[in-house]
Design brief:
A: SH3 type barrels, six-stranded antiparallel sheet, globular, B: alpha/beta, Helix Hairpins, two-stranded antiparallel sheet, 30 helices, 9 strands, 57% helix, 6% strand, disordered N terminus
């Protein structure tokens, strides 16, 4: 077994904390919202539903055909489509 | 958890504790008080509405939009009679479309009666998100009561109502509409809200820049709506989050619009600043009260199956098969019963009343018309039984979740599946079923394509044409040609409906793309009372509103087909003589003349005036085409699609040049026309009822009939070019 180089660990550590879109977030992994993007009306609706920067969000479930995604946030749940989830930046 | 930019906590940790006491006593307005019930979708608002009102909801539309406005009269202890308005489920008061504007219009009474008190329905299991709307309503300074619903489903300690009341400066009552828990306390709170001036709203700490905007906008808001104080402040905030250069809101003064636009142009993120401050308040003040996320052990176990890639679709298809089967054949015995009853009444009337015009009008127009209306009841009741159970149990949201990917590709809402499927049985209940979608655009698009699905009334016409014009041979020695033709007609209509949805969704109904927000509520046992009430209210609406149109159309059609009259044959006339007289009368009638008048338009499709008369008669219901053809060809009215004389007569019919009138090509063209034309007054009446005007039924009629004409033309002329 080869000893892992410290730099590889560092890369992995960085990769794990790089911002990613909510659509890329693995299931059941809590993440923090960094920014919510998208068309104003829908963005406003998401903000109003509590999906604000700083909120902790988890992807609970993905529909069998890959869309929509069911999210858990602020003790409640809601489902949105992948296309919209791609506009939401999160970090683990 | 960090907060949105600029969000600051209120200076005093327990803001609003002082506003817990009742405000000053005020005299009520004379007349029956109006209480508006408002809340997020899926908060059990409609069940609470049902609990508070009797069986007598008045249903209408909000002016200008096809959003249903339901008001019911209830009696509350200590208050007496109260009118309760069920405001459509909304997440927020801010709005972009006229449809979303209904929420703020309802609570403030813009263009309608202002409520004397507002009851905010929130789900105790989703407290934070639901209180966002409550906070907006509180900011407006309206007298309000917060009904913390579904308290029976909370795991662990329920939220502390005392503290919640203090934070929102409004009485909060724990209730369960399902178990009726807390309804008396809610009545008391409503009574107090009606009799006291509302407490000042909780003070939310907005960023300094937003405070400056509020100050700047208040004079404009005052000029626009003559409001001051809290309400002017709240409306300034409403304008800041709602207005932009693309909104579709009515009655907004241009100066106010400009003031908001200037701030957006300056690069401000008003939405995040304002919404962030509200959530900062909720997180700090209410966060501790909300408790843990609900445990949904049973729901999660069921969802493992219902949302499974294989079992989920298997359950879905199984359920849809049951719905389809029930509508397609399960309703048949009841329809037969109603038809038999109507016939018996008509026979009785004929036997008792003296012959003559009035009796004819009564029997064929009125009794026939009433029959044409009530014949839809079995399918409507059955469909709404299923819809009620599927909605109330929480399954419908799951079906939409499963099917969203597929339906999105066509441009339809996930929930459009049930109406589309019901369309194979009958477009009338299917059009009514579009109510399960929240957005007007989704409902309209579904309503515009559902009538293209091949309904059961088209079946007799296909059967007649296929049996008369296509030989019972087998293709390649195995496949029955006639059966294949029938299957092809169903595939054809489905394909056209899906194409129409894709085209209309990108053209006529190209609304702003509104992204989907779906909630999967916990799975529950449906409440029989809610389901029965849904079945009853939908049937009543159909009978009173669509029914009157159908009755009027039946009488008009009867007149078209009967006048002017030819002298009747004597009582000794033989059966063939009577049939010949019937055929001559029909030709002589307005419908006959109309058939001849439209002949130039339908001749390129391969049709003559006789088929034209059949198509006019089919307007009552497509299957009437068969009996009208029986009359036209003098083989009597008592024919059905299986009747040999009619088939023989059709095969024997010749053109002026001696060639047969009905070739297989004419049959194809005719079936395509029947499949695509808006040949059904009842569907048009149902669309009129659902959209609240004649605009959409007129569009439906014009587009479907044009489509039918073009497709039939292409089939007939194309076929002739190819030498058929």
């Amino acid at each position: 077994m080869v000893a892992r180089s410290p730099s590889l660990d560092r890369v992995e550590h960085l990769a794990e904390h790089l911002p990613l879109s909510l659509a890329e977030l693995p299931l059941h992994q809590p993440a923090r919202v960094l920014a919510v993007g998208g068309d104003r009306a829908f963005r406003r609706r998401l903000l109003e539903l509590g999906l604000l920067p700083g909120t902790t969000v988890t992807v609970r479930n993905v529909a069998p055909l890959g869309d929509p995604l069911e999210l858990e946030l602020r003790g409640g749940r809601l489902s949105i489509r992948r296309a919209e989830a791609q506009r939401i930046q999160v970090e683990r | 958890m960090t907060l949105g930019p600029g969000a600051v906590a209120t200076p005093d940790g327990r803001a609003g504790a002082a506003c817990h006491d009742l405000g000053q006593w005020v005299a009520r307005r004379p007349g029956t008080p109006l209480v508006a019930l408002i809340g997020n979708p899926n908060t059990g608002k409609t069940l609470l509405f049902n609990r508070l009102t009797g069986q007598n909801a008045r249903v209408g539309n909000y002016p200008g939009v096809t959003v249903e406005r339901r008001i019911g009269r209830g009696t509350l202890p200590g208050v007496g009679a109260v009118d309760i308005l069920d405001v459509p489920g909304s997440y927020s008061l801010s709005a972009r479309s006229a449809e979303e504007q209904v929420a703020i219009r309802s609570v403030l009474g813009w263009g309608t009666q202002a409520p004397d008190a507002v009851v905010l329905v929130v789900d105790a299991n989703q407290l934070l998100r639901n209180l966002y709307l409550a906070l907006q309503v509180r900011e407006l300074g309206l007298p309000c009561v917060v009904a913390v619903n579904m308290i029976d489903e909370v795991h662990g300690a329920p939220p502390d109502m005392e503290r919640l009341s203090a934070l929102l400066c409004a009485p909060c009552v724990a209730v369960s509409a399902r178990t009726r828990q807390g309804l008396d306390a809610l009545s008391q709170a409503i009574e107090q809200a009606l009799d006291h001036r509302p407490a000042a709203p909780p003070r939310i700490a907005y960023p300094a820049a937003v405070e400056a905007d509020i100050q700047a906008l208040q004079p404009l808001v005052h000029a626009a709506w003559q409001v001051e104080g809290h309400r002017a402040r709240a409306l300034a905030l409403w304008a800041l989050t709602s207005l932009d250069d693309e909104d579709e809101l009515a009655d907004i003064p241009p100066e106010l619009r400009q003031a908001v636009a200037d701030r957006h142009a300056a690069g401000r993120d008003l939405d995040q600043e304002i919404i962030g401050a509200r959530y900062a308040f909720l997180d700090q003040q209410v966060g501790g009260l909300a408790g843990a996320p609900p445990r949904r052990t049973l729901t999660e176990r069921l969802d493992a199956v219902l949302l499974h890639p294989v079992w989920g679709f298997a359950v879905f298809l199984g359920l849809m098969l049951v719905v389809f089967q029930a509508l397609f054949s399960g309703a048949d015995p009841f329809i037969g019963l109603i038809e038999g009853l109507v016939e018996a009444v008509a026979g009785l009337a004929l036997a008792v009343l003296p012959g003559g015009l009035l009796t004819d009008l009564l029997v064929e127009g009125v009794i026939g018309g009433v029959g044409n209306v009530i014949v839809f009841l079995p399918q409507i009741l059955l469909l709404f039984l299923f819809i009620g159970v599927l909605e109330d149990s929480g399954y419908m949201a799951r079906a939409a979740y499963l099917m969203d990917r597929i339906m999105k590709a066509i441009g339809l809402h996930g929930r459009a599946f049930v109406p589309m499927l019901s369309g194979y049985a009958c477009a009338v209940p299917a059009v009514m079923a579009t109510r399960t979608m929240e957005r007007q655009r989704d409902r309209l698009l579904t309503m515009m394509v559902v009538p293209l699905m091949s309904c059961s009334a088209r079946l007799p016409v296909y059967t007649l044409v296929i049996a008369a014009l296509f030989p019972p041979t087998r293709l390649f020695g195995a496949l029955p040609l006639q059966g294949l033709m029938m299957t092809a007609m169903y595939l054809f209509s489905t394909a056209i409906a899906l194409i129409a949805a894709a085209v209309l969704g990108r053209t006529v109904l190209k609304g702003r793309r509104v992204p989907l927000i779906l909630e999967l509520p916990p799975i529950r046992l449906p409440s029989p009372q809610s389901v029965l009430r849904l079945m009853w209210s939908r049937s009543k609406l159909f009978l009173t509103e669509a029914g009157t149109v159908i009755l009027a159309c039946t009488i008009a059609l009867w007149a078209l087909l009967s006048f002017p009259k030819l002298p009747e044959p004597g009582p000794q006339a033989t059966e063939p003589e009577v049939a010949a007289w019937q055929a001559a009368s029909l030709e002589h009638s307005m419908a006959g003349r109309l058939g001849k008048a439209i002949e130039p338009a339908i001749a390129p499709l391969g049709f003559d005036w006789k088929i034209g008369v059949g198509l006019i008669g089919a307007f009552a219901a497509r299957e009437v085409f068969v009996s009208t053809m029986g009359l036209v060809y003098g083989v009597g009215e008592e024919v059905d699609e299986e009747s040999t004389p009619l088939r023989e007569r059709m095969r024997a019919e010749v053109r002026p040049d001696g060639s047969p009138r009905y070739t297989p090509l004419v049959g194809l063209s005719l079936m395509a026309f029947i499949a695509l034309a808006a040949q059904c007054m009842s569907t048009l009446a149902a669309v009129k009822r659902e959209t609240g005007g004649y605009r959409w039924p007129a569009f439906l009629f014009v587009y479907m009939t044009s489509l039918a004409w073009v497709v039939s033309l292409a089939i007939y002329q194309g076929g002739r070019l190819l030498g058929f």
